[in-house]
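User: quick one, sequence for these tokens?
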């Protein structure tokens, strides 16, 4: 504010140039500090999120992709299982399941991924040991 009131007393020698290496280093370090603070706050917010504490009562039992941005999911709330539709803008309750889907404790519930894994292991075992016959229960 003082330079605006008394323009005659301000000299051009007191201003620093942006090309001064110390000012460039200072700007760069300040930028790194601000970006570091943003990442630290994002990590803390994700790590101590209140929403992640509610996962003990609501579990995703099964999920299937229905479109590019749509999913059909079976969730378990307590002892009840519900079928829901999930889009990028909406979550809709479709129905309450009368018969619950049984979740196996070993994690393999017969999904396509597990079937592919079993077929790949059988095929690889056949290539390593040609005398080994894979179980052809699908044929």
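Assistant:
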């Amino acid at each position: 504010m003082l330079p605006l009131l008394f323009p005659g007393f301000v000299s051009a020698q007191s201003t620093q140039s942006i090309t001064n290496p110390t000012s460039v280093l200072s700007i760069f370090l300040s930028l790194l500090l601000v970006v570091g603070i943003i990442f630290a706050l994002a990590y803390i917010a994700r790590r101590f999120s209140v929403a992640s504490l509610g996962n003990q009562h609501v579990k995703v039992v099964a999920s299937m992709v229905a479109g590019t941005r749509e999913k059909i999911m079976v969730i378990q709330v307590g002892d009840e299982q519900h079928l829901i539709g999930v889009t990028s803008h909406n979550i809709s309750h479709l129905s309450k399941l009368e018969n619950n889907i049984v979740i196996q404790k070993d994690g393999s519930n017969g999904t396509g991924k597990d079937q592919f894994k079993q077929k790949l292991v059988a095929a690889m075992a056949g290539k390593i040991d040609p005398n080994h016959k894979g179980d052809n229960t699908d044929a």
